[in-house]
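Forum: Protein Structure Q&A
Topic: Joint prediction for protein chains with partners

I've read a bunch of threads here and the consensus seems to be that you should model interacting components together rather than docking separate models afterwards. I'd like to see that in practice. Below is the full input, 336 residues plus whatever partners are listed. Could one of the regulars post the assembled result?
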Amino acid sequence: MRNTYVCILVMALVTYLVRVIPLVFFHGGIKSRFIRSFLHYVPYVTLSVMTFPAIITASGNPLSGLVGLAVAVAVSVWKGSLPLVAAFCCLSVYISSLVL
Amino acid sequence: MDRGRRYAFTRGMSSGIPISAGYFAVSFSLGILMRNSGLDPLEGLVMSLLNNTSAGEAAALGIIASGGSYAELALNQLVINLRYFLMSAALTVHFAKDLPLHSRLLVGFDVTDEIFATLVAQERPVSEYFAYGLFVVTIPGWAAGTTLGIIFGDILPASVVSALSVALYAMFLAVVIPPAVRDKRILVLVLVSMLSSLVFSLEPLSSHISEGMRIIILTLALSAIAALVWPEGEEE
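Posted by a regular:
Agreed with the consensus. Here's the joint model:
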């Protein structure tokens, strides 16, 4: 069993270094085109990997998880506002879990 | 504080109010996941005060709950939060050239997607006091949402908590899907990422590679491939 507070400190230290190193050491942005492109794509991959398949299993009911995924994608395409997408997704998971 | 600094600070605070409200909603969803992973409200509060990152904190939960090593946790945070490296590098040209070291150390504490977007939209050079104003309003919103998410996760009925457990993932989709609709490269990348994630989560791969490692491996490999195939991804 690891100490949760030590885990939090490890996280905070790494995250802070990632944020602060460029501010302290780079004064003209990043020159390498590959590195810039790589860093540009990182968030899309990370968020996609974290979201799928976790969104299916998160609620404990895979069928309503699938409904929630479909609703979240549809609302994101229709109107990309974060709270709106989350609200519709949660609502659809709640209602569908009553039926499915 | 002289008048110019105070003005920048209060302007930062008022720009921070809508961000803080948005943070509250996201971190409440994060708090629900923390509660599901067994964190108590104080642990959630400290984690959010010190980290300010939805994806990073959410990914850490799986590693903490499964008793992963500190090294895995550190590597996982490094990879997931790499995007802040790019943002901080870009920010250097927005602040004054002679910004003192202690200000750089302070400003670096809270580079998030929303803070970055707000800072780069200001006239250059951006006052560091504008950034501090943003921080003092947004960080409490983020931390309070997390703590209340954990507390309400215990109070609300189980069926409601289950439904709320998908909220953070829905918000991640809301971040990823609109650019994917506009840019076919992002769309392909998102679909390949999800498909790979699914494959890695199935037996027998899943018993060898933890969720935290899955995020690290796929992020590094797929982002590197995308950068080679489609260099200069910035669509500005």
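Chain A has a mean pLDDT of 91.
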